[in-house]
User: Fold this.
Amino acid sequence: MQFGKNTDSCRRKGNISGRVIFMNMSIMALFLVIIILFTMYSLNHITGTTSVRLANIHSLEASKSFNAYTAGDLALLNRLANTPAVKEWFSNESDNEKRQRAFYELLASTESPDYTSFYFGIIDSQNEYFLNATTSIEYFVPRGQMNANDPVDAWFFDLLHSEKDFLFNLTADKVTLTGTLWINHRVVYDDRTVGVLATSLNIDSILYSIFKDYDEGFITGYFVDNMGYIRAEAALLEHSDYRVGELVHISILCNHLSEFINNFVAQSDRFFTSHIRPEIIPFSGDTYSYASLTPLANSDWFIVVLFSENALFGNSELAFLIIALILALILYVLVSTFVMRRHVLKPLTNLAEEVLLPNNYGTAFKETNQNLKRNDEIGVLARNINQSQKELRSREVLLKTVNQAALTMLAIENDSELEDALSVSMEIIGRCLYVDRVYLLRCDFKTNNVDFSLISIWRSYVCKDNVPPEIMGLSLSSYKMLERLFGREHFNGPVSKLSPEEQEVLSLSGEVKSSAIIPLFVSGQPWGFFCVDDCESERTLSEGEMDVLHSAGLMFASIYNKFVQKNLANTDALTGLYNKRYFMEIAERELKDCKQKCSAFSVIMADIDLFKSVNDTYGHAIGDEVLKIFTARLSRILKEGTVLARYGGEEFVISLPHVDHKDALKTAWRLQQHTDASVFQTNGLEIKVTASFGVATSKTNPIALAELINKADLALYQAKESGRNTVAGFDENEPGK
Assistant:
């Protein structure tokens, strides 16, 4: 609507089209001959300059496409090369345990949707290895040794002798006629290079990603090494006629290309850096008119792209324009240079220059810009572009901010880090938007009601104690705003637009001036809300900002759900303790650590005596409450960090790493005495409950976890046979046991 008002205003105050047409009709014939001569004179220069610039743009795009295609594998190699398991094994190849850890770390990375394989060499032994998704630990052995005099192994020694962390190199298979791009990454341990880790990409796939959008009749590309030999060709790959292994020199296409390659190599190190710009070379040929030479960083080869005249900007591109211009000048407007320059060309040129400057992308015009003050079409255009630039800049900054928050969230390794990561990510978004509060609410639907819980919040110093409460039992029909939001609407603007009841529900009254409330739906179902508040000014976020915030909220919800599902899979639904499966995983690691340190490892099995009579007498609901009370009391007595898990039914298991048999028995007796001295109160009932405990300890003998638990279970059985409400133990180191 605002655009329409500006348009009507400019029509009333200054219709430049009418003035220009009138004056052009008056002076049409005067400059016709001059313009025609000038156009013919400038045509060749314009087409040549434009073609070179377009060729440069295409070359940069080819380089970007290559970097984008290899970025994923390069990131994977960087992560693996900095993984402790890989670095430690590379530094100590003979350590079998380190070898296994490195093997499984690398094997896990081959299970991605894209088939991945690794080829690497270790510097101390100069052994070379190969690993893919089908490799087993038994076959994870050296395939040979690196030889500095063998050209096949040059990739290994090239990287070792360079100062770079990674390099690219090309190889060719003469049998399959396929080319392979290798990404080689240095592995460093304790400031010492210990090896090189590499993965491969199919060269045809890379070429396809770079040149798939181009017509092979106008553009073709080559990978050329630093000696000038063509290593791969891409016309359109389906019709490519290059033969891998049959090296052809680039000079057959143009002698100038060979000269330029030699100059590049002579003026730089063997491996190029990212600072070297493409070179555009005009030449005469039957098919192609220009060539671009693009050195690829961290390699010793180039992308060479050949362009026909039709692929860039030739004379034919301007032919129709010239004819139309001459006809228009003859029939309509030829002689209005002064008027057109003053009223149209100069303002539009200035406007275009400001918009197209690389540093001005997403940057608003200065308030002193004269185009913003015009009352005609150019003024309307300038004001709309100015507003669009502001929104683009804001959206770009917010997208980068959300990407930074996403990286923070993706770095979480365990659920203990979830709360801090959420808070940090929300702070990043809050400071970017200059808001004072960012928070995530989770909803839980009941019958005709919905409960809200606060998952995470960040507040600036401006926002004091106004924190969204735990909102419980809200009726959906009581608040129209909630109905609207769950209907996939959102609120965005000053809080004063909400009713007092709605402000109170979402704790938006008082110091909050503006708010954006975004409903989140996961798998088509309402999940909760992502909200931002401004305590200092009334404002409305742009549509682009709301879209980005919606994506950020969904990211937070998805990561939170992932950790919630992980916890549900590892815990017992009734007691909240770890379940048997997860206990076995933890205890296996603890037992292994104790064996390595020659330390004792003890297990306590606990069982509630005559628990069936509790269920039979009071019912299973009361029995469940007794189980909850029993485990809560055990947890309070045990040291923090001790793993207590439900083993099954009324039976529980406790792991005690680095605890000998004597101390484990003391712990079991303390648990038995506390249980015996307590009365379980629930639902107005007082129930006397006792428990029996079995203890087993392993120190020197290589006993398995399952066997140790079985010994503890036998000890528990012995305690039951001895009259219950007691403790019995098994120690593998005691005589006669």
About this structure: The chain is about 45% helix and 20% strand.
